Amino acid sequence: MARPVRRRLAQYDPTEIGALFSDDVVYRYHPYDEPIVGREAVVASWLHDDAGGTASTRDEPGTYQAAYAPVAVDGDVVVAQGSTTYRKQPGGPVHQVYDNCFLMRFDAEGRCREFTEFYVLRPG
Description:
This protein has helices at 14-19, 39-46, and strands spanning 21-28, 36-37, 64-74, 77-87, 94-106, 112-121. It is mainly β. The longest helix is centred in the middle third of the chain and has 8 residues, at 39-46. The radius of gyration is 15 Å and the shape is globular. The protein starts with 13 loop residues before the first helix and ends with a strand.
């Protein structure tokens, strides 16, 4: 298997987002969700441009920080763990912190072809 694609994304750039995923990616924001299928649908969802109501919300620049690292790799399967910190305004106090686990499967070119998010709000 090729190494997973690693990038630092420019803010909501559809080309850069799309480059992370295979054409036939299956993406779930929650493990129990019906999946979003296909690169274009995932990009639309990330950009909040989908008509199906599965889109994530856009975070304003400077209002969040995230760090993730792999904890297990087995062939084309990777499990990553990390956290995301949110502020209501840039430079403001921390509003929320989520602890995350991502379950991913990659294709031969290193693009993600399956992605499932697991996350929980850290008690404050």
